[in-house]
Every structure is written in C-alpha cells, then in structure tokens.
Predict the 3D structure of the following.
Amino acid sequence: MSPCELHPSKERLAVSVQPTHEQATHEKMKLVNICFLSLAIFVGYSVTQEETAEDLAKFKEFKKRHKKTYNGALERVHFKRWKKRRAVIDDHNNQNRPFLLGENIYSDLSEEEWDTYLLGVKIPKEFVNTEEVVVPPESAVQSVGNRQTLPSLDLRNHTCMPPVKIQSPCGGCWAFIATAAVEFQTCIANNGTKTPLLLSEQQLIDCSSSYGTKGCSGGFYSQAWDYLMAIGGQASNATYPYKAAVGNCSFVKDVTPTVGKISRYSFLAKNETAILTAVQKGPIAVSIVTNSNFTLYKSGIFDDDTCKNGTVNHGVLIVGYGRTNSTDYWIVRNSWGTSWGMSGYIFMKRNVNICRIAEYAFLATI
Ligand SMILES: *[C@@H]1O[C@H](CO)[C@@H](O)[C@H](O)[C@H]1NC(C)=O
Ligand SMILES: *[C@@H]1O[C@H](CO)[C@@H](O)[C@H](O)[C@H]1NC(C)=O
Ligand SMILES: *[C@@H]1O[C@H](CO)[C@@H](O)[C@H](O)[C@H]1NC(C)=O
Ligand SMILES: *[C@@H]1O[C@H](CO)[C@@H](O)[C@H](O)[C@H]1NC(C)=O
Ligand SMILES: *[C@@H]1O[C@H](CO)[C@@H](O)[C@H](O)[C@H]1NC(C)=O
Ligand SMILES: *[C@@H]1O[C@H](CO)[C@@H](O)[C@H](O)[C@H]1NC(C)=O
Ligand SMILES: *[C@@H]1O[C@H](CO)[C@@H](O)[C@H](O)[C@H]1NC(C)=O
Ligand SMILES: *[C@@H]1O[C@H](CO)[C@@H](O)[C@H](O)[C@H]1NC(C)=O
C-alpha cells in the first residue's frame, strides 16, 4: 500500500465513526499535508541512530495498549511525536514537581489535533467580564448556603457518578460537562439508581445549535441546559448514541423518550469558597485554560503557572476537594477516557484560581 493513500477513518481516535463529508474533506487536506511531510521523511529514512530498539519496542507496546494502527509513512510521523512527548514527560518527571506527566492515548497526536479533538468551550458573550450572575434568580446555591461544608468530599465513586467518557475526536466537551451534571442530578432525584444514568451527549451536539452551540466546534454548558429546559429532557445514550461528529437532530419533543432533566442552573461567584459550598450539592461545571502539561498530566496535584493568562478553552467538572501534603486541591473530572490522568481525573491546586478555574463555574440542579 502506498504510504500516502488516504484513509481518514484509520487516523481517527478512540471512537471510530464515519466522518461526515465535510470532515472527511478537511481531514484529507490535513493528511495530504502530512503525507508530503512523511514522504520527505520516508525518502531520507536510513539514519537509524535516533530510534533505538528500545524506543521501537516501547512504541509497539503503546500502539498495542491503545489499539492504534497507522498507514504507511504516517507511522513514522506518529512515532516521532510520541518520542518527543516521552522526552518531555521524562524531563518533567525528573524535576521534582508536585505532579507527574505520563503517556496516554493522545501522546502521538499533534497539538493541532489536541485542540480540535479534545477541547470545545466557547464562553458566551453575556458571561464574559460580568460579575457573578445568578440565573435564574431563585438560586440553587442559596438552598445549599446553610449546609455544612465537609472538610473533604470525593464524588468519584458516588453511585450517581457515571464512568469517565471519551469526547474525542470532537470539540464537544461542553456537551459532556452539561450531560454529566444532568446524569448526576437526575440520579440523586431518583434516590440513587443502582447504576448511574447514561444520557445522550449526541442529542445536545445535534439539537441545541439554536441556543448558541456549534457541535464539535465548541459551545457552552449553560446553552445545553437552556435547550434541555426548553425541550423537556434528555434521552439516554442507548436511545440516541454518541457518534463524535455532528448529525441531524433526531430528537422529537414529546415523542423521543427522555430519562434526564434539570430545572435551573446558577452562575457562581468567581470565588473558590462559593464553589466549595456549591459542590456539596453536586458536580460543578467549570472552564479552564489547558496546556501541554495538562494534556500529558498523570498524577499528583497540578500546579502550573503557565496556564494562568491563557484563553479559556476547555470544560471539566469539579467533583470534590481535599488537602494533602499541605496543599488544597480540587478533584476534577475530564472527558478524555481513563488513559488520561488518574483514571480520567486530575487533582488541581485549590484557592489559586488555577488555569482560571473559578471564573465560569456553574451548578445545575433539578
Ligand atoms: C510545563 O512544566 C514544565 C516543567 O516540567 C515547565 O517548564 C513549563 O513551563 C510548563 N508549561 C508548559 C506550557 O510547558
Ligand atoms: C473507587 O473505586 C475503585 C474501584 O472499586 C477503587 O479502586 C478506588 O480506590 C475508589 N476510589 C475512591 C476515591 O474511593
Ligand atoms: C425518594 O425518597 C424520599 C424520602 O425517602 C421519598 O419521599 C421520595 O418519594 C423518593 N423519590 C423517588 C423518586 O423514589
Ligand atoms: C454511548 O453510545 C455509543 C454508541 O453506541 C457507545 O459506543 C458508547 O460506549 C456509549 N457510551 C457509554 C458511556 O456507554
Ligand atoms: C442531514 O439531512 C440532510 C437532508 O435530509 C442530508 O442531506 C444530510 O446528509 C444529513 N446529514 C447527516 C450528517 O446525516
Ligand atoms: C469569597 O467569598 C468568601 C465568603 O463569602 C469571602 O469571605 C471572601 O472574601 C471572598 N473572596 C474573594 C476573593 O472575593
Ligand atoms: C504527597 O507526597 C508524597 C511524598 O512526596 C507523594 O508520594 C504523594 O504522591 C503526594 N501526594 C499527592 C496527592 O500528590
Ligand atoms: C498574568 O497576567 C498578570 C496581569 O496581567 C501579570 O501580572 C502576570 O505576570 C501574568 N502571569 C504570567 C504567568 O504570565
């Protein structure tokens, strides 16, 4: 097989789906570029010093672990990136930092692919540069105001917490954040079902564009909740399965069965004490600035100044907090599967507005 045959679907990540026509065209263009590059590398490929047998064996393990296959010369492109990332990881881990980096299923992708397939928060204009707004006025936070705040809280293994999901390859983090909150709150309202609910992110991706969302090109969790409150509820993932690509909306109001809902949400004060109070009531949707250290995070308490002044680009959920080694931290849930971080979760330093985590915090409730 020629190294430059175009097989966009083989290049896709964890979720294998047929690309839409538009996406396929886009990917073909990208692959053509990669192919020119690879061909150049391919031609000059006789120097073997830079890849030791050990590297190649480790890369083989990586491919096996994450079920990766590449076509022709693309293998070398991915190998080189993976190797570069291994060096970054090893270098970081030798520096005695409070957190470690590690390999995950995304270690062989370009930064452009990270941006396109893993993120997807776009803050609506009305929430930028505003002081805290409470929407709607009857604040859910007021109702938790008198509740005791616990010294630590960990909802990761709560009966209502669904397993960590995988958004990739789709910039739809906003739909995963919105859905996880609805899954948790609906389950609580049902007095804790035996297994967590699994609701349809795809419904939000396909159907909520008139509320401001843009499918796999970004959106915001409050827009998804606005849609759900208007339409009456959220279907299960079984009814409306995830495809990791935008499709035509097939949800029909009052016809498609729904299993999840919320009734209100609040925009929390830009203050980590407010978040601490609110998380007693359930997961808190937040937006953060990500960087390469975040994308390669493995364990420990994430504490990195370099994401302080960046653009908010990713949505995650705060699902608890604690204190260890004299450091306060948040327990944060991502939607990048379990190969990333600590089985899909990260500890992020608390009370320093890390990666701007406290600026767009929302609580949804029934
Ligand atoms: C990531 O961590 C390293 C330390 O290993 C640090 O030098 C770097 O500035 C951090 N940020 C980025 C974006 O790499
Ligand atoms: C959650 O459950 C898993 C599997 O039972 C267990 O390994 C893990 O220690 C638990 N985590 C917490 C924080 O309780
Ligand atoms: C949940 O439990 C409460 C108190 O035990 C009860 O009043 C309520 O009807 C239950 N709700 C559901 C949906 O089972
Ligand atoms: C949701 O549906 C898709 C498509 O059927 C499936 O691949 C995925 O595993 C489901 N998600 C969960 C969390 O079960
Ligand atoms: C959406 O529907 C239109 C018109 O029926 C069709 O042409 C198009 O292929 C559909 N798109 C997807 C992604 O299914
Ligand atoms: C955050 O809120 C707490 C309690 O309401 C208040 O004491 C504190 O001053 C606030 N912090 C900031 C930075 O506004
Ligand atoms: C706390 O410090 C110990 C010893 O340095 C380390 O092994 C452990 O991983 C740290 N815990 C966290 C959560 O970072
Ligand atoms: C972030 O911006 C603030 C204010 O603009 C500045 O004082 C600070 O040095 C910047 N920090 C970094 C890490 O760039």
Remarks:
- The longest helix spans residues 21-43.
- The beta strands are 99-101, 153-154, 264-267, 284-288, 297-302, 314-324, 327-333, 345-349, 362-365.
